[in-house]
What we know:
By secondary structure, this protein is mainly alpha-helical. 75% of the residues lie in helices and 0% in strands. It is flat, with a radius of gyration of 20 Å.
Amino acid sequence: MEEHRNSPVPVGKAEARRLAGALRESVEQVRSAVLVLAERVRTAHRGRVWVALGYPSWGAYAAGELEVSRSTPYRLLDLAAAEAIEDVVGRQAGVDLSHVWDTALSVRAVVEIRGLLAELADLVAERLAQARAEAGGAQLEPGRISAAVTTTLTERRRAKVAE
């Protein structure tokens, strides 16, 4: 496999399929690990673990116990919020957002709508149901799902800024 990295000649079709399969497997492993991490972060933060362990803040706890920089625990909270939105929308709308997630919700967008999880999930579920009805009940294409999530998020972010 190492010899392919710098090779000017493309790999053959069989090798390309093998590599694509290995990449898909790795992406699924990462996605699974991120879901577990997000849930554990939510649980630890909700439980205010830093208080029980004598730390003055979530950031200090994470730096001391998890050995990460002080900004990382807050990025973990943002990740947990993003995964929570994906989970709620997926359950309510019956749509898997994982394949459109990166284009639909940036960490900055999630931070801006923090605290509006239920509202955002309801709005996206409504938009996806409407899009499905317009498509005659057919399965929605990833681009249509992404557009519904992105449009809803953009509108809600603008409304929040105007408040």
